[in-house]
Amino acid sequence: MMKRTTPAKTPKTPGKTEADPKPTIWTMKINLVFGLHATGPWEAVLEIHTSATLEELHFAIQDAVGFEADHMYMFFVARTVRTRDRTVLADEDDTVLDATLDELFPLPRGRKFFYWFDFGDDWKFSIARTRTAPGVAMKQRTYPRVVSTCGKRPVQYPPCD
Predict the structure, then answer these.
(1) 3-state secondary structure of 101
(2) Does the residue 94 lie in any domain?
(3) Residue 12: predicted pLDDT
(4) Domain count for the chain
(5) Among the ranges 14-23, 105-114, 133-142, which has the highest mean pLDDT value?
(6) Which candidate, 102, 69, 98, 82, places its Cα nearest to that of 33?
(7) Which one of 1, 14, 28, 96 is most buried, by most CB atoms within 10 A?
(8) Which range is least confidently modeled, 12-21, 56-65, 90-99, 125-134?
(9) How far are the Cα atoms of 3, 115, 128, 136, 142 from residue 139, in angstroms, in the given order?
(10) Which pairing describes strands 112-117 and 123-129: parallel, antiparallel, or unpaired?
(11) Closest CA to 44 of 24, 75, 23, 67
């Protein structure tokens, strides 16, 4: 009679299973909702690490839209971009900006994620995870990365007439 043996147990990383490893890359869709100098719709699709901070997301959006990252900004969660009932993701010492995307998602039911840049020119963007399945980072790629854009890229500082 053969003795049945069980394989040695390997330590598991929290949040991972052997059948379903924790994905590390999300695909995010960034839509321009409003901007003082916006001339039409614009959107970008980004790939970003789930462990990216809100500050890293800020710079990824700035790179995608081609802005200079020279103004104040904040993130918030709300039903709509205009509602006053919102959860602002910022504080005096900016520690909230160290929060990661995988800590933020999933959002509460009926809520959306927004990015507000330059409170004077009022650039507002919606941010959503796409239905694309999360994946594992590819070694030959640098993240975050812009996968695609659609529409006319807004101009942060249009020429004065």
Answers:
(1) helix
(2) yes
(3) 38
(4) 1
(5) 105-114
(6) 82
(7) 28
(8) 12-21
(9) 42, 29, 25, 9, 8
(10) antiparallel
(11) 67
Burial class (CB in 10 A: 0-12, 13-18, 19+), 27: middle
Whole-prediction pTM value?
0.81
- Residue 111 three-state SS: coil
115 — phi, psi (to 5°)? -125, 125
Q: Residue 135 is part of which domain span?
A: 25-151
Tell me which residue has tokens 């994620």.
Answer: 113
Chain-centroid distance of CA 125 in Å reads: 11
Other CB atoms within a 10 A radius of the CB of residue 19 amount to: 5
Percent of the chain's residues with pLDDT above 90: 66
For residue 10, is it within any domain?
no
Q: Any idea what the CATH number is for the domain that residue 91 is in? A: 3.10.290.30
| Extended strands (E) in 2-155 | 25-34, 42-49, 73-78, 86-89, 112-117, 123-129, 145-151
Q: Does 84 map to a domain?
A: yes
Residue 14 has pLDDT above 70, yes or no: no
User: At residue 110, does pLDDT exceed 90?
Assistant: yes
